[in-house]
Amino acid sequence: MRLQAALSLLALCVPSTLAIYADEVNHIDFHHALLGLPSSQSTFFLKPSSASNASLLYTLSEKSILGAINPRDGSLVWRQNVSRSLLPDSAAAGGGLLRASDGINAVVSATGDYISSWNALDGKLIWENWFTSEGSVADLELLELEDASAAGTFRDTIALVNAGEAGVVKRIDGQTGDVKWEYKDESGDVPFQVSSSPTEVFYISLQSALLKGSKIKATSLDSVTGKQTYQQTLNSENDVTGPDSIVFVGANTAAPIIVWVDKARKVLKVNVIGTKQVSTINIDNKGEEIKNIKVHAPKKLNSLPHFLVGYETESSSWAEVYHTDMKLGTVTKAYDIPRVQERSVFATSNKDANVYFTRNTESETTVVSSASHGVLGRWALKNPSTEQALHAVSEVVDKGDTVAVRSASLLASGDWQLIRNGQAEWTRHEGLSRASAAAWAETDEQEELAHQLEVEGHESLHGAYVHRVKRHIKDLEYLPEWLKELPKRILTSILTDEVSNLDSFGISKPIIIATENGRVFALDSGNHGAVSWSVKAAETDAWNVKAIITQPGTATVYADDGSSVTLKVSSGEIVGRTAPSSKVHSIAVINNGASIPVSIRENGTPMETINGSGFLVTLSADGKVLGWSAQDNKTPVWEFIPARGQKIIRATSRPTHDPVASIGKVLGDRSVLYKYLNPNLALITAVGDNSASFYLLDAVSGTVLHSSIQENVDTSQPIASTISENWFAYSFFGDSTDASEAKGHQLVISELYESFIPNDRGPLNSATNYSTLHDVDAPAPPHVIAQSFVIPEPISHMAVTQTRQGITTRQLLCTLPSSNSIIGIPRQILDPRRPVNRDPSSTEAEEGLFKYNPFLEFDGRWFLTHSRDVAGINNVLVKDTLLESTGLVIAFGGDVYGTRVMPSQAFDVLGKGFSKIQLVLTVVALGIGVTVLAPIVRKKQINTIWKTGS
Ligand SMILES: *[C@@H]1O[C@H](CO)[C@@H](O)[C@H](O)[C@H]1NC(C)=O
Ligand SMILES: *[C@@H]1O[C@H](CO)[C@@H](O)[C@H](O)[C@H]1NC(C)=O
Ligand SMILES: *[C@@H]1O[C@H](CO)[C@@H](O)[C@H](O)[C@H]1NC(C)=O
Ligand SMILES: *[C@@H]1O[C@H](CO)[C@@H](O)[C@H](O)[C@H]1NC(C)=O
């Protein structure tokens, strides 16, 4: 007994969870650090420091993430979340703006009313400012400097704020972010853009003309004082109906032009800003309707004032290059870039004053100089993508008589791809940043076996036997192949670092992810989460996927319009589709051997009935919880309405796979506390004005088994909850004014037992013969032991690790939005039976309990994401594997992160330090020893017999 106690004490000294070792990073986990789709106006190559030639690729994505990418390998250098607009509807502000200038180590961005400047090399904040009282920033430019002496210092920024009734132009100090001057235009014009030159700032606005259309008005402001100097109004009212008619407004003297087009897209008009003259260009549409006109001009100061106009029709594309004469205020056509029968994406780049235009078509990349039409470089695309390119930025390197070019294009699939001289260098799958649902899938080989086993299950005993023998005989066909591979497998398994390839233990499973832009991705979790395929499954940009349900070999994606798409897991081939029907609120899954999906309407009623047993708990849009028998979708069995003034925000149940290894908890004195193991528990979270309530329901009868209410809760902060086995946990922000109560983020854990008395099974008795439906009496309520902890930061989402048999201790997985990480808190730490205000007794110590401390510091070893910055996570899924020690975790929503968890360490896997060579050598040495010693021993034995005999 004493020895046992000593052993378990010793066991306690071994840390229950060890952090991820450095050599496991990138081995057991993977991370797609995403930005979101790069926007066309705010993406560019830039040399952040004049001391280095290396440029980085900058973008402000549609998710308002500002980031720098290393163009060599596509890795993220830094990123910042700039969606800090205080305006109520910041989405109304549209896409953000990003501006920078070569050699100046700052990038300036604006999103809504928020404007900020960041160090271009390391992404540190230089300054920030909000114009909340005025409105959102409509345009942004960096001011050109008159004196070159100030080169290298931060440039002042000109911002145009759309203040509803008025347009406000501000000059913002490049060092501090303070406003130096502002010019307010209250004439009622529509503020449009700003443009700058060394001495002037131009404010471009649209003045509505008397009858129809708009006149373009350019107001010149003194760049030092902000005083209006003159105004120029262009008679554009016959062509310009609104901001959409204006194709381009240049940012500075590299492109000092305004370009607009008439409604019929027959003529293009160009004005050099500040002059009265308008040049008219007739568009030769070659008989086809022009779909798109884009102007590409250099942004860098002292570039030649050349620009390119790209035209696109349904089937073809071409471009024209123009030169601007600043003195005369005219533009002249220099040359044509020929028409091809495919789409082209143009991009501009600079080298000193020279301007280059890059054309990426579906089959090749060409580079021309703006000065003459000669093609400087032409590369056929090595592996042309089938996806259409939406926009691109490029960088041309002039190597004397040849050029090299790299272009980063955004494809329709959401992939951001860098192509260098026709060769794809890297691809970032930015489309994954809009993941709305995910699931683990089984591959085809597993499908085949599962199918065969199913057949055997349905046959008669004799039939099944014959089938099995046949199957094994068929398997023999692979034997020669297998034997041939065998020596190689043995050798590699001995020699490689990887001790055992765990793929066959279900560690490496495909992950299916559906994104809002109608795509489905498959990630290979065994290969660092690489994208194996991605397909367009729905023609929409707002695909609201409710669930992905996988069957061996296929995955079915269910959308909120009642439609579904079934894909092959191995190839992404679409094998089935159902048409949209009615609006689906959620998808419930009934597990009767196979997973059967049931669509739930807004009002909480199931759309289908299931032939078989099963219960459903649904949440209606108006905040009722309804319980259903799966065979009846007309009348609910029970209805749960929370207390007056409360609103239900979440209903969760125990996971479908939630095995319980032990039905009781063995105490230090060998008595047992029996767990309350009701398989049909549902945890309902409801919030009131400043309270949060947690109800534990029996899903079959609808009885409230337990409830707890927390007062003084800040309901605007995240409230997370989860339930598993015989316990549930939740977290909230306690905002108490009472000094005796804790103020801060709290985590509460509650365990359910049949009885407080050890060795007592309470009124439930044998759980095997327990049915809430047939019992006339309501189910006996559990005995609940709860404890709360103050935690250092909010938790936005909770999940519980799963393993095959539930023997391994569980971890509570918490998503921490403020530190962009995911932690796994070991369940032993969250034991509500930890002794309060005293040291544990010897029996408690034997059980592993230690003194309760109200403050739960997050141990560095609990961080599954270790030092990675895993941002934007709103969902974490868990899955068991064939190894009891190991579970899988995938987190998505913004970034995509996947890892393996081993809450009780890898007790069933050989560690990396295990040397197979040493083992083999030991066995060989023993063998040699035995062969050498055996004759000697035998001789000695014979001698002994002779001696005793004589
Ligand atoms: C930048 O490029 C120039 C010529 O292309 C070269 O002479 C110089 O050494 C480069 N500087 C750095 C810091 O790489
Ligand atoms: C329901 O299942 C029973 C037995 O499995 C079967 O006899 C019956 O035909 C099924 N009904 C429907 C509508 O499928
Ligand atoms: C379950 O309980 C019922 C009555 O409560 C009894 O008739 C039945 O035999 C029990 N079944 C088992 C397997 O113990
Ligand atoms: C950026 O910040 C906003 C506001 O704090 C938040 O809603 C959004 O989820 C964040 N985005 C990412 C990708 O972290």
Automatic annotation (TrEMBL):
GO terms for cellular component: EMC complex. The chain crosses the membrane at residues 917-937. Residues 19-430 form the EMC1 first beta-propeller domain. InterPro entries: Beta-prop_EMC1_1st (IPR058545), EMC1 (IPR026895), EMC1_C (IPR011678), Quinoprotein_ADH-like_sf (IPR011047), WD40/YVTN_repeat-like_dom_sf (IPR015943). The keyword rRNA processing does not apply. Its main location: endoplasmic reticulum. It is found in: Endoplasmic reticulum membrane. GO terms for biological process: protein folding in endoplasmic reticulum. Keywords: Endoplasmic reticulum, Glycoprotein, Membrane, Signal, Transmembrane, Transmembrane helix. Residues 724-946 form the ER membrane protein complex subunit 1 C-terminal domain. It is a single-pass type I membrane protein. Residues 1-19 form the signal peptide. Component of the ER membrane protein complex (EMC). Belongs to the EMC1 family. This is ER membrane protein complex subunit 1.
